[in-house]
Amino acid sequence: MTLVLISLALFGACIGSFTNVVVWRLPRQESPIWPGSHCPSCGHAVRWHDNVPVLGWLRLRGRCRDCSAAISARYPIVETFSGCLWVSALMAAQRSSDNSMVLITLLMGLVLVSLLLPLVLIDLDHLWLPEPICRAGVICGVLATALLAWGGGSDNPKAVLLNHLIASATGLLVMESLSALAERILGQPALGLGDAKLAAVAGAWLGLGGLGISMALAVFSGAAVGTVGRWTGRLGPRQPFPFGPFIAFGIWMTWLMGASWWWQRWLALMGGA
């Protein structure tokens, strides 16, 4: 198990390194693949040994080898966080009662979190959720659902797949409707269309029940952070802030623990009240 954890952390950090490239280049309409990694200040290519996640930044002491321009600490932070997310994917895999499905569930979870992380970072930077990544998320969610439904011995895999397809369409339509309604009431956009596309991703991966749980987690966490931001003065009365990270948080928490687990916690909370 230790070897598995180390491997997941290392590969996750490597994906985090690529995520940094995607987050920087995609909003600038640049290819995330070509040219290779280079310093944005002087344009020199980053040497392979300087491109090792986390360690490369530490060895360079946060400075470009060629021009000494500062390299943001965000790079190793994202790489480390990505590695931690990859390790956390084991939680969902270990919930599977079928040993043959543990690896499949793990791989699907790694795909999901590798799609969510760049969406979160780009939304934080630009209040934008790129449609290509959201579209890839929906397609991967449908494929993952089909693989898990048929490979996992579901009694009715067609019904499972239909549930997730309906959930994806529901998430998109409901969020678009709420966005239009909020704009009419408030006179300004309250939800972006990217949020609706991310809700479609949630439905594709989690189904109707999971969609509801993930959106509830997104609303509660977003409301909490927004309230604190208003109280502390970091957010103005009508200042927009990204909702995508909270939807992604809801999606990942629901994937890790399962919709039924969250529903049971909710019932226990209501019963305890």
What is the mean predicted local confidence, pLDDT?
A: 91
Sheet with the most strands, sense and barrel status: none
Q: Stretches where pLDDT falls below 50 for ≥5 residues?
A: none
What is the oligomeric state here? single chain
Rg over alpha carbons: 20 Å
Core attributes:
single chain; 273 residues; mainly alpha; 2 domains; 10 helices; globular
Architecture overview:
This protein is mainly α and 273 residues long. The protein contains 10 helices and no strands. The protein has helices at residues 2-25, 55-60, 74-88, 90-93, 99-126, 131-151, 157-186, 193-232, 244-257, 259-272. The chain is globular and about 60 Å long.
Characterize this entry briefly.
With 273 residues, this protein is mainly alpha-helical. It contains ten helices and no strands.
Q: Secondary structure elements and their pairing?
A:
Blueprint: H1 2-25, H2 55-60, H3 74-88, H4 90-93, H5 99-126, H6 131-151, H7 157-186, H8 193-232, H9 244-257, H10 259-272
